[in-house]
Amino acid sequence: xxxxxAETIDQLLLDRVSAATDLPETSRDLLFAxxxxxxxxxxxxxxxxxxxxxxxxxxxxxxxxxxxxxAGIEVTGFRGIGPTATLHLKPGPGLTIVTGRNGSGxxxxxxxxxxxxxxxxxxxxxxxxxxxxxxxxxxAHADPQIKxxxxxxxxxxxxxxxxxxxxxxxxxxxTGFLQLAGKPxxxxxxxxxxxxxxxxxxxxxxxxxxxxxGGKPSEMHDSLHDIxxxxxxxxxxxxxxxxxxxxxGRRKLAAQSLPALQxxxxxxxxxxxxxxxxxxxxxxxxxxALELLAAAEDPDDGALVPLRKLAALELPERxxxxxxxxxxQDALAQVDGLAGTPAAEARILAGLLRDALAHQQSHPDxxxxxxxxxxxxxxxxxxxxxxxxxxxxxxxxxxxxQRERRExxxxxxxxxxxxxxxxxxxxxxxxxxxxxxWQRWDQLVDSDDHAKIATYAPAVFDxxxxxxxxxxxxxQRALAGRQQAWQPVAERxxxxxxxERAGRAAAAxxxxxxxxxxxxxxxxxxxxxDQLAPLAGAxxxxxxxxxxxxxxELGAITLAGTGPQRRVKLDVNVDGTPGAALSVMSQGELHSxxxxxxxxxxTMAQSPFRFLVIDDPVQSMDPVKVYGLAxxxxxxxxxxxxxxxxxxxxxxxxxxxxxxxxxxxxxxRLARSQVLVAGExxxxxxxxxxxxxxxxxxxDKMPADVRDVVVASLIRDAIEFxxxxxxxxEAFRTGKAVTxxxxxxxAAKGLRPSxxxxxxxxxxxxxxxxxxxxxxxxxxxxVVTVVxxxxxxxxxxxxxxxxxxxRRVVERLAQA
Length: 816
Fold this sequence. Notes:
816 residues; alpha/beta
């Protein structure tokens, strides 16, 4: 199913391309083609008519996906949790704060949920294996497992995501699955959350909080880019750049191979190489001339004319010559047969007889006027007519035979060419025998002695053919060798011409693509920031709530740069002076800014996660920002489930002072990684410290000296917390600045100064403290003295009794 965000980007870009007046037509065609896809872009670059892409049809804003909440996290043998511990949550919008001292195991719940749903944990994913090696709890007897119960809209019984490991499994070897109530088990991949987890990841650890701004600048850029569907712009730009890079390579290929081609031509003796050098010598190579030279069979070179003549010499087939010689011999035989009756004499005698016959016809029966003898009568006339006919036929036969003899000799002479002009030694070929034999043949067939021709022609012709064959073969071999030597160069010329022709087309395409990419980058920057504006506005609003008394004002948030230089540009003003966020903000301010950027992303309507899990966001924040954080979390919790893990008591305190509706849960860690989760009624940190002290008192395996120090320290922490609560509550009631109050708390070092600040309003009024404690509770002074000494190593006589007295003192402090 197409991503509607990408289709929206396509429409925005299509509108800009269509409306652009500064965009060349070629670039417009290329952009249209790139919107369709790589095949269309290739076709347009190949000369095809571009098809304008159709606007996306039927694309509407995607509805909110089915919402998912956290109903509980059950953990066994994972990280800091040994025996099974369960964190029960209320699926649905609202704020839940999970508190516990460092090492209590509270963060293990957050890490377990993150791992079960994502298969990874940002706290250690980019660190060395030493961070991962301790994932299996050493105190657990059962195989590790995680169960995350989910509340899913439309599924009354919800779902469970589980992850199990067997003995010997590594962290990556476990098996995870999804179980919808009443449905078969499914792979976690079937949730279809891969993209959503990347875009709207609902987990944020302290380490990741610091890394949002402290990591690679490109990572946040890419994250926001993907959330807004702007990856489509990167995809189109990358396609155009890839093709531009390809065109750039093509346009340079011919120039890169030209020196080697020129060197090959310079070293080649073939005259065509000189012509090719001339065709390459100009500013622009003559490709047509190069292609003709590559296809030419022979160069136009006088030095090779003799070889070509020798190679082209042909004699008629011997059978044809033999036929002509046989015809000549037959004609000569007929001539011999007419010997003694020359044709001319027969022709003359027949003429005389015709004259006599003509006289007889005009003078019939008269004596012969020549001899005076016989009478020229009719019988004589008949006899003379027959003689005339006989003589005429004889004359015609003789003439025919002579004519055939002459024609046969002429034909024989024309069957073979005359001796060509031959060099003495063309390309080392000896033509002496051929020339001598050919001269003999020419002299023979030019002779008037036809009988000699008929006699010697067969033998001389055979000698001529025998002399011609090796000379002609040698000439043909020489020419073939020259052509063979030229052929590789011809192929290189042909290939280079094709490469250069393609390179010229690629150069034109490169120029067009260059303009196209520059235009796209400019327009894409505007599209990016237009799309980012709502998200940036939300982040600015969150920062304004978080910043409280900070003098840093957040300005524009924009996506800047391309390639390795891409980043999120955060402009700030410090007391009205512009600056860069990363260079002027404190660590606490940077964490607040990172949180401001995280929350709008994680709470976008497209996210299927209706929950956020934030681990330790309070660290590095100054006291006043904790109040801002409490308000921000309360605002987000109006339509999201927000689960915050913290060891810092300031956040629960701020929630109470601001009267924010929140559920506070307390996580305690007992011996051997036994983790307990207390409900809201036990969520008061002072009560938690005292309960922890009670658990320590009951631990028989703990050395007594260590036990006494821990119990005394926990009681002291409970008293100090209650003191700080009194100070903050009074300051909140009277409207004192939070920074002033927190500064006073920080300055009150030690238990007695903290009590003086809480009960007398001034940490320096220590001389009045004893009387005030006595009024608070009769055991107060003794409890304070014992726990102070016990925290520094003095043994406790009765730890359980001290704890009971301390509970009453803490209760009185709460009432005060």
